[in-house]
Amino acid sequence: TETAERHEFGAEVGRLLDLVVHALYSEREIFLRELVANAADAVDRRRFEALTDASLMLPAEAKVRVVPDKAARTLTISDPGTGMSKAELTQHLGTIARSGTLAFAKSLADAPAADKPNLIGQFGVGFYSAFMVAERVEVTSRRVGTEEAWLWASEGRGDYTLAPAERAEAGTDIVLHMKADAEEFLEPMRLQTIIRKWADHITIPITVTQDGVEHPANEGTALWRKSKSEVTEEASLEFYRHLGNIFDKPWSTLHWRAEGALEFSALLFIPGAKPFQAVEGDRESKVRLHVRRMFITEEAALLPPWLRFVQGVVDTEDLPLNVSREMLQATPVLARIRRAVTGKVMSELKFRAKDAEDYTKFWSVFGPVLKEGVWEDAEHRQELAGLLRFRSSAVEGWTSLAEYVARMKPGQEAIHILLGDNAATLATSPQMEGFRAKGVEVLLLTDQIDAFWPEQLERFDDKPIRSITQGSVDLSAVEGTAPEGEAADLARLLPLLKEALAKEVSEVRATDRLVDSAVVLAATESGPDLQMQRLMRRAGR
Ligand code: ADP
C-alpha cells in the first residue's frame, strides 16, 4: 500500500536469513516450535504485566491458535499476548538484538548437524526460521494497552515493510505464505504431531484448526510445575505412563522444586518394573530437560548411567530456551542440576532401603544397574556400597554388606564373595566347603557386573572384599574346627600334579578350604577372578 514504509534489514539480518534458510533445511519443522514458543512467551509476558496493571489482563480462555488454510496456502499463528508496537516490531523483527551474524555463522559452521537447529534459539533469531517454509511473512500486531495495530511484512530478502493495520484485540497474528515445497505444514495432522513433540507441555492451550474446528494440540498441564498437593495420583500416574510406556505403578515418585541459587522443578519416577526399553540398551539417562516448560532434549544426561531407569522431567529457569548440545555439556548450571537431582534420588534410595521388604522390590528389578555405579563412579562408590543387597550362604533373602560385617566371625578378616551364574549352584560349590565347615558366611554374586565392581570397591567398613576362588584363602585365624589337613602326604603329590597339568594351570597348592572334595580350581591372586575368566571366554576374548 501507499502508506507502507520500506525498511532495510540491518546488514546482518540479510546474511542471517540466508544462513538460517540454508543451513537448517533438514530440520524445517522447528519453525513451528519457535513461533509457538514466541507466542506462548508473549502470553506469559502479558500475564506478568497484568499483575501490576489489571487493564492488561488476558482474555478468558487465552490460547495460541495455529490455523492452516490449504486454499490460500497460508499458515497463521495467533496469540493474545503482549503484541508489539511499531517500535518493537522494528527492533525485534528488523535487527538482531543479542549477538551478531558473524558469531552465529561461525557457530553454525562449527556445530554438529544435530545442534544446528538449537543455535537458532540460542542466538535469539527464532522468528527468522519462518523463512525456511514461507516465501512471505506478515505479522499483524497490536500492543496491549494501545489502540493501533501494525503490519510488518517481508519476503526475507533485504527489506521489510511496515504499515498501519487493524486488529480487534491486543496480540499478534503471524501469517506464513508457504513455499510450494512446504505444503506438508498445512496438514493439520502434521502440525499436531510437531506441537505434541516440541511443545506438549506449554501450559497455555494450543489449538490446530481443522475444517473450522479448533482441536487441542498440547496437554498443557506441565504437572511438574504445580505444587505437590495440586497433583492427583491419577494425573501423576497418567504422566508416568505417557513418559515411559510403562503400565505398572512407579515404585517411587519424586516431585520437588529447587529454589535459590538453582531454580528447577522436577518430577521423577522410579519404575516398579523393568520398562519396555530394557535398561540394557542405551546407557544414557533419558530424563527430559525442559526450559520454562518447553521441551529441549532427553539427551542432557541429567542422571548418571547407573540411574538410567529413572524416568521424568527436570524443568529449569536457569538456561536459555534453546541450548546446544555443546552448551549442555559445558554449562555449570546443568552440572549443578545433575548433582542436585542425583543427590535427591540417592537420598530416596537410602531412605527407602530402611524398609527391607519395600527396598527388595526395587533391588530385585534394578540392583544390577545400580552396581554399575560402584564399578564406574568413584564419587558415589561408598554411598552405593551401602545400598547393595546380596544372596548369602548364611541367610535367606537379601542381605547388605553392613549386615554381613555384623555377622563376621571373630578372627575373620575379609568379606568373602563367590561369583557364578546361579545362587543355588554356588551354595553347594566345592569352593565353599572350608567356609561352610567353619561357619564363615559367603556372599553369592550372580550378576554379570559382579565380575567387575568388587575390585573397584576393594573394602567395605575397612574389611577387604575377596573372591573365595582367587588365590589362597587363610581361614586359620577364624575360630572353629578346621578341616584336617595332611600336608605331609601332599609333598610328593603336588609336584607330580603340577607337571601333569603344566599346560592347564600355573600352580598347584595344598589348601585347608576343602572338606569333602579332593581338588578345587582357583584363580591367581593378581589375575581375573574365575567368573571373570568365564565371562571373557563367553565374550570370545
Ligand atoms: P527470541 O524469541 O529468542 O528472543 P526471536 O527472533 O524468535 O528471538 O524473537 C525476537 C523477539 O520478537 C522476541 O524476543 C519478542 O520480543 C518478539 N516477538 C516475537 N514473536 C512475538 C509474538 N508473537 N508476540 C510478541 N512479541 C514477539
TrEMBL record:
InterPro entries: Hsp90_fam (IPR001404), Hsp90_N (IPR020575). CDD domains: HATPase_Hsp90-like (cd16927). It is found in: Cytoplasm. The keyword Chaperone applies. Its main location: cytoplasm. It comes from the Bacteria. The keyword rRNA processing does not apply. Keywords: ATP-binding, Chaperone, Cytoplasm, Nucleotide-binding, Stress response. Residues 1-325 are annotated as: A. It holds the Pfam family HSP90. Belongs to the heat shock protein 90 family. Molecular chaperone. Has ATPase activity. Homodimer. This is Chaperone protein HtpG. It comes from Falsiroseomonas oleicola.
